[in-house]
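Bench notes, afternoon.
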Amino acid sequence: MGFVEYLSEIRAVDHSCSGKRAGEQIHPSDPPGKISATGRYTSYLFRARERGMGRLPACWASSVARLAIGSAPGRTSRLPDTSPMSSLVQPTRVLVDPLDATGAAIEARRWFWPLLILVVCVSASGTAFSLRWEAGPAVVQQLQMTGKLDRMTESEVTEEIQTASRKALVAGIAKGVFVMPLLTLVLAAALWVCAWLFDRTAPFGRFMSAAALAMLPIALYHAIFAVCALAQHSLTEARVEHLVPSSLAMLDGLSPKLQRVLKGVDFFNLWSVGLMGLGFSSATGMSKGRAVLLCVVLYVLFVGVFFIGLPAMAAGGPGGPPRGPPGGGR
């Protein structure tokens, strides 16, 4: 369909809600008897057709048609707001209004800003940890366990401590810049596989948005951790685990096995799981209850593997349990 023909159909629409009678003109350029509010926007196009400009690309036709309708009196434009501020504010509203804001953010494919916020917050927490971490006790303990401490001089031990601090800084920034985006991509792929299994296929961009939005509570945790860490004079590894208490593992009198189990009952992680379920529902059309239940089951499997199974296997090997980065399993 040509451009002029496309607008001809729009011009012929009866705007009965305008209150004009059939014999009146809405605009001086409208032909008598017409009550079309778009006549003044399209009349010149009919003159253009008489001069040999009868056809324009279809993409131009749809764009100008939306402009003509949106600019008519009593009409408001329906074009989406694509300003940078809207792209930033809309995803962050998910934290305070998840039921209403999640669907809009998923539909608009808002994944860049949440991912950038996650990268910045995790990198900041890693940097804060490295700046306040007291590496001496941890390095000396590791050297004792490996039997190297007796064969090293004081200067070599000091150099090992400085190297450990630099490694912690690099590891913290690398976790934010590389690991977290990769983890978000893997999470989006897992959601896509689940949608395929339930015959709820959707564009991958929606799953990427759902995964990025679900990581916002994790970004908030790391932002809080960075502020708390910088407020400390020094940090030890034991202190790191209790700096931002958010799980039931912080309760006293728990056995190591029960501690690993209750570590999965974490406020920020469960918040993230809930957002993931709402995002999966918005992306696929599945009911919110089923989507949240599916994500809870996936999280239980994750806790069983990474919080219980793998740490138990590592604790049985040489060297004891591994030291985790700030944030535990986040």
